[in-house]
Amino acid sequence: MARIGDSSSSDPPKPQSPAAVLIALALLAVAGTIALSAPGANAPGSAIAGIGGTGSLTAQSAMIQGKAVGQILIPKQCKARAPGVAVFHGPEDVKQVALTFDDGPIPNTVNFLNVLAEKDVKATFYVIGRLIPTREAILQREVAEGHYVENHTLNHADVAQGGAEAKAEIEPTTRMITEATGLRPCTMRPPYGSYAKPLQDLLEKDDLDLIRWDIDTQDSLGATADAMFENVKANLHPGAIILMHDGTDHTQITLSVLPRIIDYIRSQGYQMVTIPRMLGLETDVPAKAPVPVRPPPGLATPEVDDAARTGDSANQTETTPDTGISPTLEPPPLPPEGTPGQ
């Protein structure tokens, strides 16, 4: 089991400087806070806009369901340390754990961000590339609040065997995340947790660490809130990487138990950190200014995925522990995953 870390039709608009973007984000956070204190800001029937659709963080989008965004931080680039090597947990001599959320961004992702902001917790989001267009502002809020946005492929496809198909899943997603946030991903989580040497070789070339998990809440399979909590409670340990989802059919259950999970972890003396922080991947290089995202040709709109996600998810199977997207949009279930090279 690998371990990284020894311790805690016209030209696009010209990007602004990183300093200007960061100042703008800070001012917007203040604007959101002021708006909350204004008369009628939270009055019944008052309209509060959400993030999504415009690709920019506006004064209105800084308020999500009546709550100001969390503390604005200076996003920093991260850098892979052992590209292609499968990582299941972090250092086991430090009381840190990493909360990770897969398969967004979807509109409900902002509610996860609200909880994390209220609890002052930083997390890592493994996003689906095809869901990024029109939702860039969700990713921008994530990095502005100190979270990391990482690669979970373009279409939630099995990329274990590498090759041109895997390259077409991973590299456009890396590019779109970088364009949307100004931060290049330094890690990748393969859908279904499925990987083999061809994928590891590709990730080595693409300079991406391969991140798995060692606590699976089973939320994508419909686990109850109590079952998810007890799973985390029973398996919590230093260096744990906890798998949850903000983009499945069952996100409301995950969202409902998330505060309880956070409170328990904190009560046991653990700090919750991002994957780059846990594995020592952070650098001192600040984020670049976001630029317009260029989706791959023929990419389906995110709304297609939202429509499918509201359907019946009873066909999900336990043979695919990291399913994420509705089965109507996924390839046939994979056989039980292995851990090649481990």
What's this entry about, in short?
By secondary structure, this protein is of the alpha/beta class.
Mean pLDDT: 77
Tell me the major beta sheet.
6 strands, parallel
> Count of helices?
9
**N to C succession of SSEs:** EHEEEEEHEHEHEHEEHEHEHEH
Which parts are unreliable, with pLDDT below 50 for 5 consecutive residues or more?
3-23, 25-68, 307-342
Rg calculated over all Cα atoms: 19 Å
User: Which structural class should the secondary elements be placed in?
Assistant: alpha/beta
Q: How far from one another are the termini?
A: 6 Å
| Helical content band | 25-40%
The strand count comes to 14
Tell the overall outline. globular
Which range does the strand content fall in? 5-15%
Description:
The protein is of the alpha/beta class and 342 residues long. Helix content is 32%, strand content 14%. Strands 6, 7, 8, 11, 12 and 13 form a six-stranded parallel β-sheet that branches. It has a four-stranded parallel β-sheet with strand order 1-5-10-9, with helices on one face. α2 packs parallel to α7 (251-267) and α4 (163-181) runs parallel beside α5. The longest helix has 20 residues, at 18-37. The relative contact order is 0.19. Mean pLDDT is 77; it is low at 3-23, 25-68 and 307-342.
